[in-house]
Specification:
With 343 residues, the chain is α/β, with parallel strands linked by helices. The chain is built from twelve helices and eleven strands. It has helices spanning 2-12, 17-24, 28-36, 43-56, 62-69, 85-100, 116-127, 172-185, 201-216, 231-242, 255-267, 301-318; strands spanning 74-79, 104-109, 132-135, 154-156, 167-170, 192-194, 249-252, 277-279, 296-298, 326-329, 332-334. The chain has a four-stranded parallel beta sheet, sandwiched between helices. Strands 6-7-8 form a three-stranded parallel beta sheet, sandwiched between helices. It has a two-stranded parallel ribbon with strand order 5-10. One of its GO terms (molecular function) is DNA-binding transcription factor activity.
Amino acid sequence: MAEATSRRRRASGAPSLVDVARLAGVSPQTASRVSAGAPNVRAETRQRVERAMAQLGYAPNRAAQALRRGSFKTIGVLTQQIQRTGEALTTAGVLEAATAAGYAVNLTQVAQPESQELREASHRLVNQAIDGLVVVQAGRAGREHLALPPTMPVAVSDSTLVGHYPSASADQAQGVRDAVGHLLALGHRTVHHVTGPQGSQSALIRSATWAACLREAGAIVPEPVPGDWEAAAGYAAGQRLAANPQVTAVFCANDEVALGLIRAMHEQGRRVPDDVSVVGFDGLALGEYSFPPLTTVRLDFKRHGREMVGLILEQAEHGPLDGSRSITIPAELTLRASTAPPR
């Protein structure tokens, strides 16, 4: 039997498990258990078999294994623009948690989620054999934009899909309240705002909460300055706001916008925080090393990713969950040197 299998391997050019077993000095049954990821194999033996697989270039038949165990050990991931820092860090958390659980990840990017593009992308992922779908970012796309089987485990974060599917999301509203409340407590009469992109649910939450906080405090709500997630948008907004001597405090939609705004203020002779206090959002590591160090609201993006993988695994074991299953991740105000009382 082994000789026949080996002859088939030589004819096809592809190594077989029999070849792996022979090189590793174990039985074909043991090599098969290692290939399938079975736990009942000694660590030293597993390492020897895995070295033999690598040396021979052996690739397990994952489709056949999936049929046997009823799982493909693969999680699909949908995101919008992975070059954005928050999406990249969240996806990194997904990768870490999936790898730790023994799952591979199949990643797809959708530039325009509120379109047929998202439906087509989700359909492709399902047809590529996944055990569940993590939606890192989908803008303001709704449930109708996804093409999924009703039993497919799904987990989402910070989008309009929250409430329709199990979710792990930051408490963005509380983070904004803490940021605006901090500036008002310092004595600023009002707080200006540079927004994120209009198509972002997160940006809309931050803008709406900013305005609500000012109204509740009896403060004037200035006209928000349209922005994006990029530093260039903050720089353009900073040039505009620097010309207004009444501007003493600015809440920015994210840290990159805040850093662009601070540069513009500096170039226009407005000192931060002496003349203008600035608060960012997201808590990126680079904010600690900006000048001045940036006061911000820190979000744990990697935890978002890890929690969403946990929701997928929970559903894989116990069955699909509805949108009432939600995990809220705290947002943390981090005080640094970019804020001070008005002069």
